[in-house]
Amino acid sequence: MRLLIVGTLKGQLTTATKIAMENGATVTHAEDHEQAMRVLRGGKGADLLLVDVALDIRDLVMRLEAEHIHAPIVACGITNDARAAVAAIHAGAKEYIPLPPDPELIAAVLAAVANDSRELVYRDEAMARVIKLAQQIAGSDASVMITGESGTGKEVLARYVHTRSARAKRPFISINCAAIPEHLLESELFGHEKGAFTGAIARRIGKFEEATGGTLLLDEISEMDVRLQSKLLRAIQERVIDRVGGTKPVPVDIRIIATSNRNLADAVREGTFREDLLFRLNVVNLKIPPLRERPADIMELAQHFVKKYAEANGVPMRPISAEAKRVLSTNRWQGNVRELENTMHRAVLMAQGDEIGPDAILTPDGDRLDLAKTPPAVAHATMAAEQVTRALVGRTVADVERDLILETLKHCLGNRTHAANILGISIRTLRNKLNEYADGGIPITPAGTPGEYPRMPMIGA
């Protein structure tokens, strides 16, 4: 983790610095906003900013946003001033810490930033296979493509690979290719020189240089403009980049991990993604299955989120009731893990009594998840399917087979040949089954029931 302390707090934050460094973090100091921005533009980067509450935190937040620099801010002050704390939070700080700092509090803040809620939780065998492959290739420098639907945890898996690589103590830098306008993405990736374009007030080190020695995550790479892809391909192949407005190549040493929620093979056929870039990135593909295909993970994750948000909100950790588990297990989870996490956060807040019941498993609109509005046809089909399924429970295979054969024969008005074709069995097998049922005293629809099939008149009759 990279910690940047902003302001004249070095003496007061000796404890924070020591704790951070003991945990493998690098610590940089800046006297004011200007120096802090120079540090961040210079490629050192930061995962967390500890900022003197006496400084203009709102101004710093606006500067960071203007230059698309993303790092959480924790305000610090030498007094336990409630007004200062509230003002700092309103200005954009994530937390306020009074000084001198409590060692355990500083350690907790640093741990929270380092973990950033990216714990890998799984139990299902389908996910276990993906994790096993990730472990096998983590130690290499091979490029990795992580694919899967939105919300499945692609960035979580990317960080997992990084933390188990030889680059684990070096930076992990992430950039969302879909979140940055096309005309700014090149500068974000490769940096720029002062005056390279309107608004380039100083040299800015891009993500490639910032990630040198570590890992660069190109999140949602499928959204990158095809014209920029050629420059990215050169950077990956030759391990050099050209800053916007620069005059000489800059060497970089990084491992590339890319993610996509789209089928890039289809994008290649459509001409929106370069085939040679896909080959370069897709050395190893980690395909994360959607949550609906990982049923054993649903309850494992649900329990994890209950614990997490009960602790975060200071409420009792209630067990999930059997009926609530049924609701969770049968939902489709179109938003995958992200949707489940939000659902369990709401459940923790809304639950009453000793358990989290189905009344607390709600949609964002406040409706019960199992009673959410669906199109009438879909709701009817779902209800019919559930009724059929429930009717089968507790019966033997022989009983179900018998009823299926007899109902099919009845539907075919006794026509043995037609019934056998529908059932996918031979006419001989069908007759043997019917004889068996008849011997047991079960009535059988007779052959040649009137109205079965009208007979065609014979020629010359």
UniProtKB/TrEMBL annotation:
Residues 120-349 form the Sigma-54 factor interaction domain. PROSITE patterns: RESPONSE_REGULATORY (PS50110), SIGMA54_INTERACT_1 (PS00675), SIGMA54_INTERACT_4 (PS50045). One of its GO terms (biological process) is phosphorelay signal transduction system. GO terms for molecular function: ATP binding; sequence-specific DNA binding. InterPro entries: AAA+_ATPase, AAA_lid_NorR, CheY-like_superfamily, Homeodomain-like_sf, HTH_Fis, P-loop_NTPase, Sig_transdc_resp-reg_receiver, Sigma_54_int. CDD domains: AAA. Gene3D superfamilies: 1.10.8.60, 3.40.50.2300, Homeodomain-like, P-loop containing nucleotide triphosphate hydrolases. SUPFAM superfamilies: CheY-like, Homeodomain-like, P-loop containing nucleoside triphosphate hydrolases. Pfam families: AAA_lid_14, HTH_8, Sigma54_activat. Residues 2-114 form the Response regulatory domain. Keywords: Activator, ATP-binding, DNA-binding, Nucleotide-binding, Phosphoprotein, Transcription, Transcription regulation, Two-component regulatory system. The modification 4-aspartylphosphate is found at residue 52. PANTHER family: TRANSCRIPTIONAL REGULATORY PROTEIN (PTHR32071), TRANSCRIPTIONAL REGULATORY PROTEIN FLGR (PTHR32071:SF21). This is Sigma-54-dependent Fis family transcriptional regulator.
